[in-house]
């Protein structure tokens, strides 16, 4: 199981070196730990920043649930996507605008076939907006199907 709240650093996250900008550690307002963020003033429209979480020891032919907190704050701040390494082309999850600045929970079911997913990538694509940020926190991978709310 993976449990990454970023309060103890960045777990096994790797910044992609082929992208346009890095995600940064940001302080939570409550002063309680950190989260990863892309502020709106970083980069230009359509620029991408990718954070990759390397997964080890996932069992083939089993199910996992990726649960994470995210927020898209600010007008036209951009998009947040999640990719699994086994299906590089299409995102398995995408969100483009927040209704407000609250943190929300995302859940993604990962079914392991014979080949296992060995990484999860959070990709931020910059929008036109110059205020706000895209944030990710509390990334947890648990075995089994995703729980109902």
TrEMBL record:
One of its GO terms (cellular component) is membrane. InterPro entries: ConA-like_dom_sf, MAM_dom, MAM_domain-containing. SUPFAM superfamilies: Concanavalin A-like lectins/glucanases. Residues 2-148 form the MAM domain. Pfam families: MAM. Signal peptide: none annotated. This is EGFL6 protein. It comes from Eudromia elegans.
């Amino acid at each position: 199981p993976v449990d990454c709240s970023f309060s103890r650093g960045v777990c096994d996250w790797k910044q992609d070196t082929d992208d346009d900008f890095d995600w940064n550690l940001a302080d939570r307002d409550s002063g309680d730990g950190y989260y990863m963020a892309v502020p709106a003033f970083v980069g230009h429209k359509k620029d991408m920043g990718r954070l990759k979480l390397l997964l080890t020891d996932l069992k083939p032919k089993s199910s996992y649930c990726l649960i994470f907190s995210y927020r898209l704050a600010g007008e036209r701040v951009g998009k947040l996507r999640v990719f699994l390494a086994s299906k590089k082309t299409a995102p398995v999850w995408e969100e483009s605008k927040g209704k407000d600045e609250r943190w929300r929970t995302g859940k993604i079911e990962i079914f392991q076939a014979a080949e296992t997913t060995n990484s999860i990538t959070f990709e931020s694509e910059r929008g036109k907006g110059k205020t706000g940020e895209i944030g990710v926190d509390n990334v947890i991978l648990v075995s089994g199907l995703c729980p109902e709310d």
